[in-house]
Design a protein that fits this description.
The chain has 5 helices and no strands. It is an all-alpha fold. It has one domain. Helix 1 runs antiparallel to helix 4, helix 2 packs antiparallel against helix 3 and helix 3 packs across helix 4.
Amino acid sequence: MRRERIKQRIGSVRDRHEHSSAVVKLGLTIAGAVLFVAGLAMLVLPGPAFLVIPLGLGLLSVRFEWARRLAFAGVDAVAGAAACFGRRSLWVKVALVVAAGALVAGVGVLVITR
């Protein structure tokens, strides 16, 4: 499964950086924290929050177990949503994609006209 490969990848990166220097560990921690906080801010500000938050968590998961658990929970949630979406009929999929596109377009219009 794809989510198992993602979990293995996070684990291998974590193992690789286990014996890194303090400077590398500090850099990963700072970069991960900045990305994670910026992603949280992007939930209410314009920006790709749903891309930046996982990147920050991925970097933080190299150093912290809580970030690893949170990243794994996110991977499981996305995999579950993808499986749920995959079981739907073609018409339901088309309707969901059209509704999501209309939502994105509506938010775009609101942002542009302000």
